[in-house]
Amino acid sequence: MTGAPHGLDPDAEAPVVVRVDWFSFTVREASRSALERAVSEALGCGRDAWGDAGPRQRYEMSREGPCGSFIAFSRGRPDLHVRLPGKACGRADQESLRRLFAWAKANNGKPTRIDLAIDDMQERCGPRFVKEQFEGPTRRSRVKYSCLTVKSTRDGDRIGESLHLGSMSSTRCLNVYDKRLESQGQIQATRWELRSKDERACAVLDELVVRDDWGRVACEQLVDLVDFREESGNRCAWFADLVGDAEAARLVQEKPEPDISRMIAYVRKQVAPTLCVLMHFVRGDLGAFVELLGLEAARGRLSVKQQRVLRDVAREPLRVDVD
């Protein structure tokens, strides 16, 4: 079996293996050498396992490690980006990954994606069956979109079916597929792959750092996204075989209150290029720029939180303190 399991159902009659199958994050408060050392310790490799590579993920340079892992960076940028795909995560046991997760949190790292893979080693329910149940009356789901696709090689040989539940662009989605065919027999299972991104990934990371029962964490995440229940309210037997009596996850991450520094940072990251074009359009005329954007009229559309920030900055001297 490829990859170290990070959670295991002790029931030998219905084994379910849980893995962390992807971890990517961005960190700003650490040196590249410290980051490379922390990732190397998690993957069980030396610093000599890393080599210089080309641009990655909009970064100018990168260092490539084992199993497709890499650290990306650019000159003059304080942020570093790490990607550990499934095979790289599989090199690490649960405690090694937990130490890396804790290191990332301690250095104010922001996870961009975490995948939790629940492997049904009995292959009881395939993607087509799950789609039929998803479209039936037993579904209890936070998502409505489903898409069943058939994967094939360039020669037309069938690799297997894959069911996507939820949009790939959302903060979480589910993919159910035949891992036996996809892995060419290395992992004989039906995989339920739960992808979490951005703020949802942050909440999942918090759980993985403090809890030992990662298998339970994965099942709670899955049940929170989709569940299958009979009219009586009891969980469908086929789904109970997979998740047991897991309850839906209750992950609450408090969103930070907006302040002027966060607003400036957001505009710099998301809007600054567009504003640059518009400023050139008005030939640098600040008055024309204000009129073009309708900034005076926008004061009447401020939210309650934006109005509070406006009052706060009116009482304080002008100070720009962002990275």
How would you characterize the overall build of this protein?
- The protein has helices at residues 32-43, 86-90, 94-106, 127-134, 179-182, 198-210, 214-225, 237-243, 260-281, 286-293, 295-298, 304-315; strands spanning 7-8, 16-27, 51-53, 61-64, 70-73, 80-84, 110-120, 139-141, 146-152, 158-165, 172-178, 190-197, 226-228.
- It is of the alpha+beta class and 323 residues long.
- It folds into 2 domains: 7-243, no CATH class; 260-315, no CATH class.
- Helix 3 crosses helix 6 (198-210).
- Residues 8-14 have low confidence and may be disordered.
Q: Which class of secondary structure composition applies to the elements?
A: alpha+beta
Topology as H/E string?
EEHEEEEHHEHEEEEHEHHEHHHHH
Give me the number of helical elements: 12
Give the low-confidence spans.
Answer: 8-14
Q: Calculate the mean pLDDT score and round it.
A: 87
Q: How many structural units, i.e. domains?
A: 2
Q: List how many beta strands DSSP finds.
A: 13
Instruction: Report Rg.
Output: 23 Å
Largest sheet, strands/sense/barrel: 11 strands, antiparallel
Helix content: 25-40%
The oligomerization state is single chain
Q: Whole-Å distance between the termini?
A: 45 Å
